[in-house]
Amino acid sequence: MELKELTSAEQVVMKCIWDYGKDMPLQQLIENLKQDYGKDYKRTTIRTFVLHLEEKGYVTTYQIGKYSYINYLIEEQDYKEQELEKTKNFWYKESGFDLVKTLYKGKLNEGKLKKLKKLLEEIDD
């Protein structure tokens, strides 16, 4: 299933929701965005972001009394995999090798290199 594109602001909101988990109170989202990501958005702006995320199929919301809650519908891992696949296809002409090379260029010590080789062997089998 092709997920709809998110703006950079919507990505931050989703990351915050995924970090929290299910049944996130709207007020908690407001606080976490400010505290964890330095985003001091007004309540109405955040509600608009959440509405757009709901329209795009990423979240669902519900109310209990005067409190609003948010649940994600798309798993973070699914989103990350799709985004990485799009990046690989666009920037690296579908070469996973070139993408991995860019990600780890000069950053692999002996232990990490062995783990990566083992992972590649498992994938190849």
TrEMBL record:
The keyword DNA-binding applies. Gene3D superfamilies: Winged helix-like DNA-binding domain superfamily/Winged helix DNA-binding domain. GO terms for biological process: negative regulation of DNA-templated transcription. The keyword Transcription applies. SUPFAM superfamilies: Winged helix' DNA-binding domain (SSF46785). One of its GO terms (molecular function) is DNA binding. It holds the Pfam family Penicillinase_R. Keywords: DNA-binding, Transcription, Transcription regulation. Belongs to the BlaI transcriptional regulatory family. This is Copper transport repressor, CopY/TcrY family. It comes from Anaerostipes hadrus. The lineage of its organism: Bacteria, Bacillati, Bacillota, Clostridia, Lachnospirales.
